[in-house]
Amino acid sequence: MTTRTVDTTEELAAFLRSRRERLDPDRLGLPAHRRARRTPGLRREEVAELAGVSTDYVVRLEQGRGLRPSAEVLTALARALRLAPGERDYLFDLARRRRPGGTRGGAATGPAPSLAHLVDELSPLPAALLDHRYDLLAWNPEMARLLPEFDAVPPERRNAMWLCLLHPPMRGFYADREGVLRDGVAHLRAAWAAHPEDRALAGLIAEFTAQDEDFARLWAEREVRVNGRGRKLLRHPAVGTIAVDFEVLLPLEDPELRLLVYRAADDGSRAALHRLCGGDGCQEG
């Protein structure tokens, strides 16, 4: 499949349409005479009125006619469309504007040695360092043991989304596979907009879309919510069910990297992790 990087004008148009169409006019308190409509969501003129721009401007944006809206217009559109913070970031990235008060780091070139050492020193908590593509850059022995048959994965395939989608031993690993995939796809879509020239990322997305129908379905929904904290229920083939709480941390000097840390959510899960690592700590296998 041909690797496709981001056509930001086309994606900006599609994203604005999708967010306009999902809004419920009733919940926005629009006058009753405006509510009879044949298609879901708001009309373009209603978005224009809420954002303080012309209807023609909204039409041209949604038709992908090469406009580059200012930060002020983007802020108004984000407010009119009730965008969540991650969606606002995505909108600004597509328009190649820096969101006021937001941050965007440069492309990651690899983890600093201190970060790789930190991952090791987080033992016995399973931990890993990932980049914006979900490539695994560093991991400790506990994380390697937790991911089924991770030692058999070729170096070029050490990517968290690839493992979830295409590594057969992990097919049933996540009890809520749909939720894990939804979060992962939303992160990759945000990263895709923030790195429009990243052909490696575009290649991964093309591969996942072609080979996994669940990924293709979720990708088409254009969700860009980023979830940095929560709980996962894991089904490990050796020790059974493990509930973990996870945190995703962003290093201040390397904001394109993600430090993922798991903690056992209950005593049974703590005991399972202890058994998995042989009681006295994991050894790389």
TrEMBL record:
SMART domains: HTH_XRE
Pfam families in alphabetical order: HTH_31, MLTR_LBD
Cross-referenced PROSITE patterns: HTH_CROC1
HTH cro/C1-type domain: residues covered: 34-88
PANTHER family: BLL4672 PROTEIN, BLL4672 PROTEIN-RELATED
Protein name, UniProt field: Helix-turn-helix transcriptional regulator
